[in-house]
Specification:
Layout: H1 7-14, E1 16-19, E2 24-28, E3 31-35, H2 40-49, E4 59-62, H3 80-96, E5 99-101, H4 111-118, E6 126-129, E7 143-146, H5 149-158, E8 160-164, E9 167-174, H6 183-194, E10 202-207, H7 209-212, H8 216-224, E11 233-235, H9 240-246, H10 255-265, E12 278-283, E13 290-292, E14 300-302, H11 316-329, E15 344-347, H12 349-352, H13 355-365, E16 375-378, H14 383-391, H15 394-401, E17 404-405, E18 426-429, E19 444-447, H16 450-459
Parallel strand pairs: 3-4, 3-6, 4-5, 6-7, 9-10, 9-12, 10-11, 15-16, 15-18, 16-17, 18-19
Antiparallel strand pairs: 1-2, 2-8, 13-14
Helix pairs in contact: 2-5, 6-8, 13-15, 13-16
Bound molecules: 3-isopropylmalic acid and iron/sulfur cluster.
Length: 469
Protein backbone atom coordinates (compact mmCIF):
# COMPACT_ATOMS: atom_id res chain seq x y z
CA UNK A 1 0.00 0.00 0.00
CA UNK A 2 1.18 3.50 -0.77
CA UNK A 3 1.81 5.97 2.03
CA UNK A 4 -1.16 8.06 3.16
CA UNK A 5 -1.31 11.39 1.33
CA UNK A 6 -2.83 14.77 2.01
CA UNK A 7 -5.33 16.42 -0.30
CA UNK A 8 -2.54 18.75 -1.48
CA UNK A 9 -0.22 15.78 -2.20
CA UNK A 10 -2.91 14.13 -4.30
CA UNK A 11 -3.79 17.14 -6.46
CA UNK A 12 -0.11 17.96 -6.89
CA UNK A 13 0.82 14.37 -7.86
CA UNK A 14 -2.05 14.17 -10.34
CA UNK A 15 -0.71 17.20 -12.21
CA UNK A 16 3.01 16.45 -12.40
CA UNK A 17 4.20 16.42 -16.01
CA UNK A 18 7.88 16.17 -15.12
CA UNK A 19 9.85 15.90 -11.89
CA UNK A 20 13.58 16.75 -11.72
CA UNK A 21 15.95 15.18 -9.19
CA UNK A 22 16.19 18.44 -7.26
CA UNK A 23 12.41 18.45 -6.73
CA UNK A 24 11.56 21.01 -9.40
CA UNK A 25 8.33 19.97 -11.09
CA UNK A 26 6.44 20.92 -14.17
CA UNK A 27 2.74 21.02 -13.28
CA UNK A 28 -0.16 20.87 -15.68
CA UNK A 29 -2.52 23.81 -15.22
CA UNK A 30 -6.24 23.16 -15.71
CA UNK A 31 -7.54 26.70 -15.50
CA UNK A 32 -6.01 30.13 -16.02
CA UNK A 33 -7.82 33.28 -14.99
CA UNK A 34 -6.56 36.56 -16.39
CA UNK A 35 -7.21 40.16 -15.35
CA UNK A 36 -6.05 43.49 -16.74
CA UNK A 37 -3.35 44.34 -14.19
CA UNK A 38 -0.89 41.46 -14.50
CA UNK A 39 -1.45 40.30 -18.08
CA UNK A 40 -0.37 43.05 -20.53
CA UNK A 41 3.36 42.18 -20.58
CA UNK A 42 2.54 38.48 -20.73
CA UNK A 43 0.51 38.88 -23.92
CA UNK A 44 3.14 41.23 -25.27
CA UNK A 45 5.75 38.52 -24.64
CA UNK A 46 3.71 36.04 -26.67
CA UNK A 47 3.36 38.53 -29.47
CA UNK A 48 7.09 39.21 -29.57
CA UNK A 49 8.00 35.55 -29.74
CA UNK A 50 5.21 34.75 -32.18
CA UNK A 51 3.51 32.30 -29.83
CA UNK A 52 -0.17 31.49 -29.35
CA UNK A 53 -2.20 30.80 -26.24
CA UNK A 54 -1.87 27.04 -25.91
CA UNK A 55 -5.40 26.43 -24.56
CA UNK A 56 -7.69 29.43 -25.00
CA UNK A 57 -10.62 27.31 -23.76
CA UNK A 58 -8.85 26.84 -20.39
CA UNK A 59 -8.30 30.58 -20.08
CA UNK A 60 -10.84 33.21 -19.01
CA UNK A 61 -10.25 36.96 -18.94
CA UNK A 62 -12.13 39.63 -17.03
CA UNK A 63 -11.64 43.27 -16.01
CA UNK A 64 -12.05 44.05 -12.33
CA UNK A 65 -9.33 46.15 -10.64
CA UNK A 66 -9.49 49.25 -12.81
CA UNK A 67 -13.16 49.44 -13.67
CA UNK A 68 -15.25 52.23 -12.25
CA UNK A 69 -18.14 51.05 -10.04
CA UNK A 70 -20.25 54.04 -11.01
CA UNK A 71 -23.40 53.44 -13.10
CA UNK A 72 -21.85 56.01 -15.46
CA UNK A 73 -19.24 53.50 -16.51
CA UNK A 74 -21.26 52.34 -19.48
CA UNK A 75 -20.34 55.66 -21.07
CA UNK A 76 -16.63 54.78 -20.93
CA UNK A 77 -13.78 54.84 -18.41
CA UNK A 78 -12.62 58.40 -17.66
CA UNK A 79 -9.27 57.65 -16.02
CA UNK A 80 -6.71 57.43 -18.82
CA UNK A 81 -4.43 54.81 -17.21
CA UNK A 82 -7.36 52.56 -16.28
CA UNK A 83 -8.88 52.89 -19.73
CA UNK A 84 -5.60 51.86 -21.39
CA UNK A 85 -5.32 48.76 -19.20
CA UNK A 86 -8.91 47.71 -19.77
CA UNK A 87 -8.69 48.26 -23.52
CA UNK A 88 -5.43 46.29 -23.65
CA UNK A 89 -7.09 43.24 -22.09
CA UNK A 90 -10.05 43.49 -24.46
CA UNK A 91 -7.66 43.57 -27.42
CA UNK A 92 -5.39 40.82 -26.11
CA UNK A 93 -8.35 38.52 -25.44
CA UNK A 94 -9.66 39.13 -28.96
CA UNK A 95 -6.27 38.69 -30.66
CA UNK A 96 -5.52 35.46 -28.79
CA UNK A 97 -9.03 33.97 -28.89
CA UNK A 98 -9.59 34.02 -25.13
CA UNK A 99 -13.09 34.43 -23.71
CA UNK A 100 -13.43 37.89 -22.14
CA UNK A 101 -16.02 39.53 -19.89
CA UNK A 102 -16.06 43.29 -20.40
CA UNK A 103 -17.44 45.75 -17.85
CA UNK A 104 -20.73 45.68 -19.75
CA UNK A 105 -21.16 41.89 -19.53
CA UNK A 106 -23.50 40.63 -16.79
CA UNK A 107 -20.92 37.89 -16.03
CA UNK A 108 -18.19 40.46 -15.28
CA UNK A 109 -16.93 40.79 -11.74
CA UNK A 110 -13.94 40.21 -9.51
CA UNK A 111 -11.90 37.41 -11.05
CA UNK A 112 -12.15 35.21 -7.92
CA UNK A 113 -15.92 35.56 -7.81
CA UNK A 114 -16.64 34.86 -11.46
CA UNK A 115 -14.50 31.68 -11.69
CA UNK A 116 -16.63 29.74 -9.19
CA UNK A 117 -19.83 31.33 -10.48
CA UNK A 118 -19.20 30.05 -13.98
CA UNK A 119 -18.13 26.56 -12.93
CA UNK A 120 -14.71 27.44 -14.38
CA UNK A 121 -13.37 26.59 -10.91
CA UNK A 122 -13.88 22.90 -10.13
CA UNK A 123 -12.61 20.45 -7.48
CA UNK A 124 -9.28 18.73 -8.06
CA UNK A 125 -8.04 21.28 -10.55
CA UNK A 126 -4.88 23.33 -10.65
CA UNK A 127 -5.92 26.95 -11.04
CA UNK A 128 -3.67 29.97 -11.44
CA UNK A 129 -4.07 33.68 -11.98
CA UNK A 130 -1.67 36.61 -11.80
CA UNK A 131 -3.24 37.59 -8.52
CA UNK A 132 -2.41 36.62 -4.97
CA UNK A 133 -6.00 35.98 -3.92
CA UNK A 134 -6.29 33.08 -6.35
CA UNK A 135 -6.14 31.06 -3.14
CA UNK A 136 -9.91 31.73 -2.96
CA UNK A 137 -10.57 28.87 -5.40
CA UNK A 138 -9.05 26.41 -2.94
CA UNK A 139 -12.46 26.41 -1.26
CA UNK A 140 -13.47 23.92 -3.95
CA UNK A 141 -10.71 21.47 -3.17
CA UNK A 142 -8.66 22.87 -6.05
CA UNK A 143 -4.96 23.72 -5.88
CA UNK A 144 -5.11 27.42 -6.64
CA UNK A 145 -2.49 30.10 -6.26
CA UNK A 146 -1.24 33.40 -7.57
CA UNK A 147 1.58 33.67 -10.10
CA UNK A 148 3.77 36.50 -11.40
CA UNK A 149 3.51 38.08 -14.82
CA UNK A 150 6.35 36.05 -16.36
CA UNK A 151 4.58 32.91 -15.13
CA UNK A 152 1.34 34.19 -16.65
CA UNK A 153 3.17 34.25 -19.98
CA UNK A 154 4.53 30.74 -19.35
CA UNK A 155 1.08 29.36 -18.58
CA UNK A 156 -0.50 31.12 -21.55
CA UNK A 157 2.14 29.62 -23.85
CA UNK A 158 2.42 26.11 -22.40
CA UNK A 159 -0.49 25.47 -19.98
CA UNK A 160 2.15 24.40 -17.45
CA UNK A 161 3.97 25.97 -14.52
CA UNK A 162 7.30 25.28 -12.84
CA UNK A 163 6.71 24.57 -9.15
CA UNK A 164 8.32 23.04 -6.11
CA UNK A 165 6.21 21.21 -3.65
CA UNK A 166 5.24 23.20 -0.55
CA UNK A 167 4.88 21.72 2.95
CA UNK A 168 1.53 20.62 4.36
CA UNK A 169 -0.20 22.51 7.16
CA UNK A 170 -3.50 21.51 8.73
CA UNK A 171 -5.70 24.12 10.37
CA UNK A 172 -8.52 22.37 12.15
CA UNK A 173 -11.41 24.46 13.43
CA UNK A 174 -13.47 22.35 15.82
CA UNK A 175 -16.89 23.05 17.30
CA UNK A 176 -19.70 25.36 16.25
CA UNK A 177 -19.50 29.08 15.54
CA UNK A 178 -21.55 31.26 17.89
CA UNK A 179 -24.38 33.34 16.37
CA UNK A 180 -22.95 36.47 14.73
CA UNK A 181 -19.46 35.01 14.27
CA UNK A 182 -18.56 34.22 10.66
CA UNK A 183 -15.99 32.72 8.31
CA UNK A 184 -14.28 36.13 8.19
CA UNK A 185 -13.78 36.03 11.95
CA UNK A 186 -12.36 32.50 11.71
CA UNK A 187 -9.72 33.50 9.18
CA UNK A 188 -8.83 36.75 10.94
CA UNK A 189 -8.41 34.73 14.14
CA UNK A 190 -6.19 32.20 12.36
CA UNK A 191 -3.96 34.95 10.93
CA UNK A 192 -3.88 36.61 14.33
CA UNK A 193 -2.67 33.29 15.73
CA UNK A 194 -0.07 32.25 13.12
CA UNK A 195 0.95 35.75 11.96
CA UNK A 196 1.36 36.95 8.38
CA UNK A 197 4.44 34.77 7.91
CA UNK A 198 3.02 31.72 9.73
CA UNK A 199 2.01 30.00 6.53
CA UNK A 200 5.20 30.72 4.57
CA UNK A 201 6.27 27.64 2.62
CA UNK A 202 3.00 25.81 3.29
CA UNK A 203 -0.24 24.92 1.63
CA UNK A 204 -2.91 25.03 4.32
CA UNK A 205 -5.77 22.56 4.44
CA UNK A 206 -8.70 23.79 6.53
CA UNK A 207 -10.75 21.08 8.18
CA UNK A 208 -12.90 20.41 11.23
CA UNK A 209 -16.56 20.71 12.13
CA UNK A 210 -16.76 24.52 11.82
CA UNK A 211 -15.24 24.47 8.32
CA UNK A 212 -17.51 21.64 7.16
CA UNK A 213 -20.54 23.62 8.39
CA UNK A 214 -19.64 26.64 6.22
CA UNK A 215 -21.35 27.43 2.92
CA UNK A 216 -19.19 27.72 -0.21
CA UNK A 217 -19.25 31.50 0.25
CA UNK A 218 -17.81 31.16 3.75
CA UNK A 219 -15.21 28.66 2.58
CA UNK A 220 -14.11 31.06 -0.14
CA UNK A 221 -13.70 33.82 2.46
CA UNK A 222 -11.39 31.55 4.45
CA UNK A 223 -9.28 30.38 1.51
CA UNK A 224 -9.14 33.92 0.09
CA UNK A 225 -7.12 35.14 3.05
CA UNK A 226 -4.72 32.17 3.19
CA UNK A 227 -2.23 34.38 1.39
CA UNK A 228 -2.54 36.97 4.17
CA UNK A 229 -1.24 34.25 6.48
CA UNK A 230 1.72 33.78 4.12
CA UNK A 231 0.60 30.42 2.70
CA UNK A 232 0.99 29.53 -0.96
CA UNK A 233 -2.57 28.24 -1.09
CA UNK A 234 -5.51 27.20 1.06
CA UNK A 235 -7.61 24.10 0.51
CA UNK A 236 -10.89 22.67 1.73
CA UNK A 237 -11.79 19.14 0.64
CA UNK A 238 -14.85 19.05 -1.61
CA UNK A 239 -18.01 17.55 -0.09
CA UNK A 240 -21.78 17.56 -0.67
CA UNK A 241 -21.86 21.35 -0.10
CA UNK A 242 -19.30 21.77 -2.87
CA UNK A 243 -21.01 19.40 -5.29
CA UNK A 244 -24.40 21.08 -4.75
CA UNK A 245 -22.85 24.48 -5.47
CA UNK A 246 -20.98 23.36 -8.58
CA UNK A 247 -23.73 21.18 -10.01
CA UNK A 248 -25.74 23.73 -12.02
CA UNK A 249 -22.93 26.09 -12.96
CA UNK A 250 -22.64 26.91 -16.69
CA UNK A 251 -19.23 25.26 -17.22
CA UNK A 252 -19.61 22.34 -14.84
CA UNK A 253 -19.51 18.89 -16.48
CA UNK A 254 -22.90 17.46 -17.39
CA UNK A 255 -24.41 13.94 -17.60
CA UNK A 256 -21.89 11.09 -17.72
CA UNK A 257 -19.00 13.55 -17.45
CA UNK A 258 -20.48 14.86 -14.19
CA UNK A 259 -20.77 11.32 -12.77
CA UNK A 260 -17.17 10.53 -13.66
CA UNK A 261 -15.96 13.82 -12.22
CA UNK A 262 -17.90 13.27 -9.01
CA UNK A 263 -16.36 9.85 -8.55
CA UNK A 264 -12.88 11.35 -8.83
CA UNK A 265 -13.67 14.36 -6.65
CA UNK A 266 -14.82 12.08 -3.84
CA UNK A 267 -11.32 10.57 -3.66
CA UNK A 268 -9.82 13.99 -3.00
CA UNK A 269 -9.60 13.86 0.78
CA UNK A 270 -6.55 13.70 2.99
CA UNK A 271 -5.98 10.03 3.88
CA UNK A 272 -6.25 8.83 7.45
CA UNK A 273 -2.77 9.22 8.96
CA UNK A 274 -1.47 11.59 6.24
CA UNK A 275 1.49 13.64 7.47
CA UNK A 276 1.13 17.36 8.11
CA UNK A 277 4.31 19.32 8.85
CA UNK A 278 2.40 21.71 11.09
CA UNK A 279 -1.01 21.49 12.78
CA UNK A 280 -3.03 24.32 14.31
CA UNK A 281 -6.26 23.73 16.22
CA UNK A 282 -8.89 26.37 17.01
CA UNK A 283 -12.18 26.15 18.89
CA UNK A 284 -14.92 27.93 16.91
CA UNK A 285 -17.17 28.21 19.96
CA UNK A 286 -14.65 30.54 21.60
CA UNK A 287 -14.36 32.98 18.68
CA UNK A 288 -15.71 36.54 18.98
CA UNK A 289 -16.40 38.95 16.12
CA UNK A 290 -12.98 40.33 15.18
CA UNK A 291 -11.73 43.79 14.19
CA UNK A 292 -8.25 44.65 12.89
CA UNK A 293 -6.61 47.63 14.60
CA UNK A 294 -3.29 47.99 12.72
CA UNK A 295 -1.78 47.90 9.25
CA UNK A 296 -1.33 44.15 8.93
CA UNK A 297 -4.03 41.46 8.85
CA UNK A 298 -2.42 39.86 11.92
CA UNK A 299 -3.22 42.97 14.01
CA UNK A 300 -6.56 41.71 15.25
CA UNK A 301 -8.56 41.88 18.44
CA UNK A 302 -12.03 40.94 19.68
CA UNK A 303 -14.72 43.59 19.21
CA UNK A 304 -14.98 43.47 23.02
CA UNK A 305 -11.29 44.28 23.35
CA UNK A 306 -9.18 47.42 23.39
CA UNK A 307 -6.45 48.78 21.14
CA UNK A 308 -3.35 46.93 22.38
CA UNK A 309 -0.28 48.59 23.84
CA UNK A 310 2.77 47.86 21.63
CA UNK A 311 5.15 48.98 24.40
CA UNK A 312 4.47 45.57 25.95
CA UNK A 313 5.99 43.72 22.96
CA UNK A 314 9.47 42.41 23.84
CA UNK A 315 10.81 42.00 20.27
CA UNK A 316 12.20 45.39 19.30
CA UNK A 317 11.47 45.24 15.56
CA UNK A 318 7.97 44.07 16.14
CA UNK A 319 7.42 46.71 18.80
CA UNK A 320 8.51 49.57 16.55
CA UNK A 321 6.45 48.30 13.62
CA UNK A 322 3.33 48.07 15.79
CA UNK A 323 3.96 51.55 17.25
CA UNK A 324 4.17 52.84 13.71
CA UNK A 325 0.94 51.00 12.83
CA UNK A 326 -0.91 52.65 15.72
CA UNK A 327 0.41 56.03 14.70
CA UNK A 328 -0.66 55.42 11.10
CA UNK A 329 -4.09 54.33 12.30
CA UNK A 330 -4.41 57.33 14.60
CA UNK A 331 -5.26 55.14 17.59
CA UNK A 332 -4.31 55.23 21.27
CA UNK A 333 -3.64 52.05 23.28
CA UNK A 334 -6.45 51.16 25.64
CA UNK A 335 -9.21 52.65 23.46
CA UNK A 336 -12.24 50.36 23.44
CA UNK A 337 -12.82 48.96 19.93
CA UNK A 338 -16.51 49.86 20.25
CA UNK A 339 -15.52 53.52 20.84
CA UNK A 340 -13.78 53.77 17.45
CA UNK A 341 -15.87 55.94 15.15
CA UNK A 342 -15.91 55.59 11.37
CA UNK A 343 -16.06 57.84 8.32
CA UNK A 344 -16.54 55.20 5.66
CA UNK A 345 -17.81 51.65 5.28
CA UNK A 346 -16.88 49.42 2.35
CA UNK A 347 -18.76 46.18 1.78
CA UNK A 348 -17.49 44.12 -1.13
CA UNK A 349 -14.26 42.54 -2.53
CA UNK A 350 -13.36 38.93 -3.37
CA UNK A 351 -13.31 38.22 0.37
CA UNK A 352 -16.89 39.26 1.09
CA UNK A 353 -18.68 40.42 -2.06
CA UNK A 354 -20.86 37.35 -2.64
CA UNK A 355 -24.63 36.95 -2.31
CA UNK A 356 -24.52 35.43 1.16
CA UNK A 357 -22.48 38.42 2.37
CA UNK A 358 -25.04 40.83 0.97
CA UNK A 359 -27.89 38.89 2.56
CA UNK A 360 -26.12 39.12 5.92
CA UNK A 361 -25.77 42.87 5.47
CA UNK A 362 -29.44 43.29 4.51
CA UNK A 363 -30.50 41.45 7.65
CA UNK A 364 -28.55 43.91 9.81
CA UNK A 365 -29.54 47.15 8.07
CA UNK A 366 -33.17 46.54 7.09
CA UNK A 367 -35.35 49.42 8.31
CA UNK A 368 -32.35 51.30 9.73
CA UNK A 369 -30.38 54.34 8.57
CA UNK A 370 -26.65 54.80 7.96
CA UNK A 371 -25.10 57.14 10.54
CA UNK A 372 -25.05 60.79 9.46
CA UNK A 373 -21.24 60.93 9.62
CA UNK A 374 -20.63 57.73 7.63
CA UNK A 375 -20.37 57.35 3.87
CA UNK A 376 -21.16 53.70 3.13
CA UNK A 377 -20.96 51.73 -0.10
CA UNK A 378 -21.91 48.21 -1.12
CA UNK A 379 -20.21 46.76 -4.19
CA UNK A 380 -21.43 43.39 -5.46
CA UNK A 381 -18.62 41.04 -6.48
CA UNK A 382 -20.07 40.37 -9.92
CA UNK A 383 -22.90 41.28 -12.26
CA UNK A 384 -24.61 38.01 -11.35
CA UNK A 385 -24.33 38.74 -7.63
CA UNK A 386 -25.85 42.15 -8.33
CA UNK A 387 -28.66 40.64 -10.37
CA UNK A 388 -29.42 38.08 -7.65
CA UNK A 389 -29.37 40.72 -4.91
CA UNK A 390 -31.78 42.88 -6.89
CA UNK A 391 -34.07 39.91 -7.55
CA UNK A 392 -34.25 39.44 -3.79
CA UNK A 393 -34.90 43.16 -3.22
CA UNK A 394 -31.69 43.63 -1.23
CA UNK A 395 -30.72 46.73 -3.22
CA UNK A 396 -33.93 48.45 -2.06
CA UNK A 397 -33.06 47.70 1.57
CA UNK A 398 -29.53 49.08 1.09
CA UNK A 399 -30.63 52.22 -0.73
CA UNK A 400 -33.44 52.92 1.76
CA UNK A 401 -30.87 52.67 4.57
CA UNK A 402 -28.63 55.19 2.81
CA UNK A 403 -25.96 52.92 1.27
CA UNK A 404 -24.50 53.60 -2.15
CA UNK A 405 -25.26 50.54 -4.36
CA UNK A 406 -22.57 50.15 -7.03
CA UNK A 407 -21.52 48.24 -10.13
CA UNK A 408 -19.24 45.19 -9.67
CA UNK A 409 -15.45 45.39 -9.37
CA UNK A 410 -12.56 45.44 -6.89
CA UNK A 411 -13.57 48.98 -5.95
CA UNK A 412 -12.21 50.31 -2.66
CA UNK A 413 -10.48 47.04 -1.77
CA UNK A 414 -7.44 48.72 -3.30
CA UNK A 415 -6.85 52.22 -4.55
CA UNK A 416 -6.59 51.40 -8.25
CA UNK A 417 -9.86 52.96 -9.39
CA UNK A 418 -12.02 55.94 -8.43
CA UNK A 419 -13.17 54.46 -5.11
CA UNK A 420 -10.68 55.39 -2.41
CA UNK A 421 -10.28 56.81 1.05
CA UNK A 422 -9.11 60.36 1.62
CA UNK A 423 -6.14 60.87 3.96
CA UNK A 424 -7.03 59.96 7.56
CA UNK A 425 -10.47 58.67 6.70
CA UNK A 426 -11.31 55.65 8.83
CA UNK A 427 -13.07 52.74 7.17
CA UNK A 428 -14.70 49.50 8.27
CA UNK A 429 -14.00 47.20 5.34
CA UNK A 430 -14.95 43.64 4.43
CA UNK A 431 -11.84 43.28 2.28
CA UNK A 432 -8.63 41.42 3.11
CA UNK A 433 -5.76 43.90 3.36
CA UNK A 434 -5.19 46.85 5.69
CA UNK A 435 -1.68 47.83 4.56
CA UNK A 436 -0.71 51.50 4.64
CA UNK A 437 -2.34 53.26 1.70
CA UNK A 438 -4.21 50.15 0.59
CA UNK A 439 -7.57 51.90 0.31
CA UNK A 440 -6.10 55.32 -0.49
CA UNK A 441 -3.19 57.51 0.59
CA UNK A 442 -3.11 57.67 4.41
CA UNK A 443 -6.48 55.89 4.58
CA UNK A 444 -7.18 53.83 7.71
CA UNK A 445 -8.66 50.38 7.23
CA UNK A 446 -10.28 48.09 9.79
CA UNK A 447 -10.98 44.58 8.50
CA UNK A 448 -14.27 43.05 9.66
CA UNK A 449 -17.05 40.69 8.60
CA UNK A 450 -19.97 41.95 6.46
CA UNK A 451 -22.40 41.94 9.42
CA UNK A 452 -19.92 43.88 11.56
CA UNK A 453 -19.33 46.42 8.77
CA UNK A 454 -23.08 46.82 8.30
CA UNK A 455 -23.71 47.41 12.00
CA UNK A 456 -20.81 49.88 12.14
CA UNK A 457 -22.31 51.83 9.22
CA UNK A 458 -25.59 52.24 11.11
CA UNK A 459 -24.11 52.95 14.54
CA UNK A 460 -21.25 55.15 13.26
CA UNK A 461 -18.80 53.18 15.42
CA UNK A 462 -17.95 49.50 15.93
CA UNK A 463 -20.58 47.48 17.76
CA UNK A 464 -20.68 43.86 18.85
CA UNK A 465 -22.97 42.26 16.29
CA UNK A 466 -23.97 39.70 18.92
CA UNK A 467 -25.86 42.52 20.70
CA UNK A 468 -27.55 43.80 17.54
CA UNK A 469 -31.32 44.26 17.60
C1 LIG B 1 -3.32 43.81 -8.54
C2 LIG B 1 -3.07 42.39 -8.09
C3 LIG B 1 -1.81 41.91 -8.70
C4 LIG B 1 -3.13 42.25 -6.57
C5 LIG B 1 -2.85 40.84 -6.05
O1 LIG B 1 -1.99 40.11 -6.54
O2 LIG B 1 -3.46 40.41 -5.12
C6 LIG B 1 -4.49 42.69 -6.05
O3 LIG B 1 -5.52 41.91 -6.50
C7 LIG B 1 -4.48 42.77 -4.56
O4 LIG B 1 -5.42 42.29 -3.94
O5 LIG B 1 -3.52 43.33 -4.01
S1 LIG C 1 -11.11 42.47 -4.65
FE1 LIG C 1 -9.24 43.17 -3.71
S2 LIG C 1 -8.16 41.35 -3.07
FE2 LIG C 1 -9.70 40.75 -4.53
S3 LIG C 1 -8.64 40.69 -6.48
FE3 LIG C 1 -9.60 42.71 -6.28
S4 LIG C 1 -8.01 43.99 -5.37
FE4 LIG C 1 -7.35 41.88 -5.08
Amino acid sequence: MSAPRTLYDKIFDDHVVDRQDDGTCLLYIDRHLVHEVTSPQAFEGLRMSGRKVRHPEKTLAVVDHNVSTSPERKFGIKNEESRIQVEALAKNAKDFGVEYYSENDIRQGIVHIIGPEQGFTLPGMTIVCGDSHTSTHGAFGALAHGIGTSEVEHVLATQTLIQRKAKNMLVRVDGKLPEGVTAKDIILAIIGEIGTAGGTGYVIEYAGEAIRALSMEGRMTICNMSIEGGARAGLIAADETTFAYVNDKPRAPKGAAWDAALEYWKTLQSDEGAHFDKVIVLDAAKLPPIVSWGSSPEDVVSVQGVVPNPEEISDENKRSSKIRALDYMGLTPGTKITDITLDRVFIGSCTNGRIEDLRAVAKVVEGKTVSAHVDAMIVPGSGLVKEQAEAEGLDKIFIAAGFDWREPGCSMCLAMNDDRLKPHERCASTSNRNFEGRQGFKGRTHLVSPAMAAAAAIAGHFVDIRDWK
